[in-house]
Design goal:
Elements lengths: L30 E2 L5 E8 L3 H11 L6 E7 L3 H11 L2 E3 L2 H7 L4 E4 L6 H10 L3 E4 L7 H14 L3 E3 L7 H12 L5 E9 L17 H4 L1 H9 L9 E7 L11 E7 L5 E7 L10 E5 L2 E5 L3 E6 L28 E6 L2 H4 L2 E2 L5 E2 H17 L7 H17 L11
Length: about 400
């Protein structure tokens, strides 16, 4: 068992509570990397799809920043895998892992209903927390998490890796350059045709495509609005699962705000044919289309086109106004050699996005740097998700799980 005196964050070790300090910058870590930087000890709660394939996979690569020392999961085979692959202490319950302590960062990759309670427990135990999406089902519950982090003097960080996917960062760069003019409309499609029969298809587990995929899609959609603006929401959702699930599997969500674009997000399990590229962006001087591996955009320079006098009173020569614009076209193609391997089923999520989140968290822990995605931004996302669910109450057929 690791001793409390070696903890970089003053977390609870061996049943003894060590009062947390306001910041961990400059405090000791159990291990020091070759670059003389602290290596943070990590306890991962949950070794399912994200806990194992995303978090554990990356943490075993980022050994100059993090070291997995503890894992909690209900499934015996997963615990055995953690012992053999990571040399970690293993637990069948995250509460037992927190009680034993000996780690600095709690990665909450548990099923969605446990995101709030496990995060609150970890913060109370003195851990920093990186929490999977959705962080909470309501703004009220999210605010409770933020307040708990403030009381504990600990870092609470969201895991929003798809904000930092290469194609989306390049898209934002193009939009921010102004070449497309004022952005009027954005459409994004997330989905395919698929039947699902797992725990995420039930409302009791906070399942459904809006909670499963929506935190990625809505996080990106909100990037098209100023951070100070929470857009209005219009949403239609339904559940058409033939296999018994009762959570939404179709979602058409529209966000809009005064002087802002109209942003449509389509998340569906019923797209037998692809509806064009994943993204389409339309501006007053051009547009962009594409997805994770390729983007194309075209635009014209307003200084290089003629001004026209308005035809009065009617059309000239019974014709429509026509002109040939001096379009400039550009393209971006993903460099897979630098993006790393991909995971995910609605979007190919490359390791570079995971790295961005964990690198940012490391800077927050060691230097007090702002996080890659702020809690205020996540709060705005959760407000959208909550409103969309409020507008679409669905019959609940299962009230207990499993």
């Amino acid at each position: 068992m690791d001793g409390a005196s070696d903890s970089v964050s003053g977390i609870r070790d061996s049943g003894r509570s060590v009062p947390p300090g306001p910041s961990i910058a400059g405090r000791r870590s159990r291990a020091i990397s070759a670059s003389n930087r602290p290596v943070f000890r990590v306890g991962i709660a949950g070794q399912g799809r994200s806990g194992y394939k995303i978090h554990a996979d990356w943490l075993t690569q980022a050994t100059d920043q993090y070291r997995i020392v503890a894992v909690a999961d209900q499934v015996p085979q997963r615990r055995q895998d953690a012992q053999e692959q990571f040399g970690a202490r293993v637990y069948s319950d995250y509460g037992e892992m927190l009680a034993d302590g000996g780690f600095d960062l709690f990665v909450n990759a548990l099923p969605t209903p446990l995101h709030v309670p496990a995060t609150l427990a970890a913060l109370e135990a003195g851990c920093h927390v990186l929490c999977e999406k959705p962080m909470a089902p309501t703004v009220e519950r999210f605010d409770a998490m933020v307040a708990a982090a403030g009381r504990a003097g600990r870092v609470l960080a969201p895991f929003q890796n798809n904000r930092y996917q290469p194609f989306f960062q390049r898209m934002l760069q193009v939009i921010d350059s102004g070449v497309l003019g004022r952005i009027l409309h954005v459409r994004s499609c997330w989905g395919a045709f698929e039947r699902r029969w797992d725990w995420q298809t039930f409302q009791v587990n906070l399942g459904g495509c809006l909670f499963n995929t929506g935190p990625h899609a809505v996080d990106q959609a909100l990037c098209f609005f100023p951070e100070s603006v929470t857009p209005s929401v219009f949403c239609r959702m339904g559940c058409y699962n033939e296999l018994g699930g009762d959570a939404n599997d179709f979602c058409a969500l529209t966000l809009y705000a005064p002087d802002g674009p109209t942003v449509e997000v389509h998340i569906s399990h019923y797209q037998a044919y692809r509806q064009g590229d994943m993204y389409a962006v339309n501006g007053t001087r051009g547009g962009l289309t594409g997805g994770h591996s390729r983007l194309r955009w075209k635009y014209y320079d307003g200084a290089k086109v003629p001004r026209h006098d308005i035809w009065r009173p009617w059309s000239h020569q019974r014709e429509y106004p026509r002109e040939t614009l001096p379009w400039q076209e550009q393209e971006w193609v993903l460099d897979e050699s630098t993006a790393g391997k991909a995971v995910g089923y609605t979007l190919r999520s490359y390791n570079v996005g995971i790295k961005a989140v964990y690198d940012s968290l490391y800077r927050t822990l060691t230097e007090g740097a702002p996080p890659a995605v702020s809690l205020a931004e996540v709060r705005r996302q959760i407000a959208v998700l909550e409103e969309a669910h409020r507008q679409n109450p669905l019959p609940q057929t299962t009230t207990q799980w499993p």
